[in-house]
Amino acid sequence: MSMASDWLARLQEYANSPHEQFDLTTLKPGDVLRVNTRNTLYTFRILEERMALMETNRENRPIGRVKIMGCTFGLSSTISPNHLFCGGNLELSLLEQEVRMTHTTSAIRAIEWLRREPAAA
Predict the structure, then answer these.
(1) I need a surface site. Which of 9, 16, 107, 114 has the fewest CB within 10 A?
(2) Half-sphere exposure of 89 (CA within 13 A, CB side)
(3) Coil, strand, or helix at residue 76?
(4) Is the pLDDT higher at 33 or at 15?
(5) What average pLDDT does the structure give for the chain?
(6) pLDDT of 67
(7) Cα 48 to the center of its chain, rounded Å
(8) pLDDT band at residue 73 using 50, 70 and 90 as cut-offs
(9) Torsion of the alpha carbons at 42, 19, 16 and 1, rounded to the nearest 10
């Protein structure tokens, strides 16, 4: 089976399976988003929209200011720009000192959203 047919089969399998997507447009400043991939736990402290400060549990992973781009399958370009889903690969745009670099993770295993509650009046 060729790589193209493998990719198409994976997309078809995803389209035909029940799955939940996390809508990135629901993120608000102060929220915390944790994305656990096959290899790393990413923690995002949301600054605005999809802009965040990112930390990881591994020293050899990038950290700092990022834009959460969405999900991909393998080495494809972003196919779900406003959503994350288990089984997809998280795509980030690193924003350090005017330099942009794209980072794509291993497959997402779990997504946890900690919503910042507004202060009581």
Answers:
(1) 16
(2) 17
(3) coil
(4) 33
(5) 82
(6) 93
(7) 15
(8) confident
(9) 20
Per DSSP, what are the bridge partners of residue 64? Answer: 54
Three-state secondary-structure class, residue 40? coil
Hey, is 82 helix, strand or coil?
coil
- Give residue for tokens 């993120």: 27
Provide φ and ψ at 92, rounded to 5°. -125, 150
Contact 69, 54 (CB under 8 A): no
- The one-letter amino acid code at 93 reads S
Those residues whose C-beta lies under 8 Å from the C-beta of residue 113, and which sit 6 or more positions away, are: 22, 26, 27, 31, 32, 33, 34
Rounded Cα distance, 49 and 58, in Å: 25
- In three-state secondary structure terms, 112 is strand
The region, left, alpha or beta by phi > 0 then psi within -120 to 50, assigned to residue 8 is alpha
pLDDT tens-digit series, residues 79-104: 788 899 998 999 999 877 677 788 88
**How many whole angstroms separate alpha carbon 50 and alpha carbon 31?**
11
